[in-house]
Amino acid sequence: MGKNPKFITPEKDSRKYRVKKKRSKMEKIEHKMVAVNGINMHVAELGQGPTILFLHGFPELWYSWRHQIVYLAEHGYRAVAPDLRGYGDTTGAPLNDPSKFSIFHHVGDLVALIEAIAPNEDNVFVVGRDWGAAIAWHLCLFRPDKVKALVNLSVQFPRRNPQMNTVERGKAFYGEDYYICRFQVPGDIEAEFAPIGAKSILKKILTYRYPGPLYFPKGKGLEAIPDAPIALSSWLSEEELDYYASKFEQTGFTGGVNYYRALPINWELTAPWKGAQVKVPTTFVVGEFDLVYHMPGVKEYIHNGEFKKDVPLLEEVVVLEGAAHFFNQERPDEINKHIYDFIQKF
């Protein structure tokens, strides 16, 4: 840990075999709606045993965890993955009001969900990635009693900067075209996305591998985002991309973008937790080419001891060599093993 992170080398690609084998198993995943915190949350689940709650990021769905759901269910766990507020088949969140997408709403959704789906368990395992990881960190801050152990991917603990919020910081480093800044004006990025189509947008974002900042220059659509080499994006089949696209064609992107629009209010409302620690057993995994890992100060924070100060029960930091932002889908076998090996301790 600390200055000597573990680097994991890529395994031989076995996606074709994996997809063929798991298609029938995917069909066994059960789907249901759960009323939580004023919304109706769509939940996918499979397996029997201790509950593992999987939290997806942007622009994703429960489906992002398809490989993990099947694997953990086969290994004695109950894998549960919701479409988070504003995504997929989850309904009821007012899309025209970004303030209803604050971190407190998300944590409130999860507390209610845990109590609804696991009433006989004192706490559950939580696995988060990207926005799901950010929500998981705050779930552990606000309600550590609900979390048995945490596996977080991509996004490190979001230590609060008392001087400026995330949007202001992004603008200071990268300018107005930085994706977080472009997402702030309601309706703006949606209007730019509309003529492009959900499938093209999702393919570009999900296969993004450049470790530098993501830009959406006004009026240029997706031109600023380079195409991923075919060999490096082979983990996302046409069938899988079509599933994502079908859901975002129905919902649009406003729900997911609202998470970014709520960043300023999150900064204001989380002031009482400045300096608070996450005291839940944790392991953290990030991709070598993950754009979050390359944001200013992140590597230093993760590897120079500050991360451990904020998360004193952090057991390990793993850097996946050659992996990019969506590595739970790009490198599922390795992530499955990291999750399983860690939660087996509890």
UniProtKB/TrEMBL annotation:
Function statement: Epoxide hydrolase involved in the biosynthesis of cucurbitacin and mogroside tetracyclic triterpene natural products (e.g. siamenoside I and mogrosides IV, V and VI). Cucurbitacins have cytotoxic properties and exhibit deterrent taste as a defense barrier against herbivores. Mogrosides are nonsugar highly oxygenated compounds used as high-intensity zero-calorie sweeteners; they also possess pharmacological properties such as regulating immunity, lowering blood sugar and lipid levels, protecting the liver, and acting as antioxidants and antitumor agents.
Keyword Hydrolase: yes
GO molecular function: epoxide hydrolase activity
SUPFAM superfamilies on file: alpha/beta-Hydrolases (SSF53474)
Annotated catalysed reactions: (24S)-24,25-epoxycucurbitadienol + H2O = (24R)-24,25-dihydroxycucurbitadienol; an epoxide + H2O = an ethanediol
Domain of life (superkingdom): Eukaryota
Coiled-coil region list: none
Enzyme Commission number, as recorded: 3.3.2.10
Protein name, as recorded: soluble epoxide hydrolase
EC category name: hydrolase
Family listed: Belongs to the AB hydrolase superfamily. Epoxide hydrolase family.
UniProt organism field: Capsicum baccatum
PANTHER family (alphabetical): EPOXIDE HYDROLASE
Record pathway: Secondary metabolite biosynthesis; terpenoid biosynthesis
Keywords assigned by UniProt, alphabetized: Hydrolase
Every AB hydrolase-1 domain range: 50-158
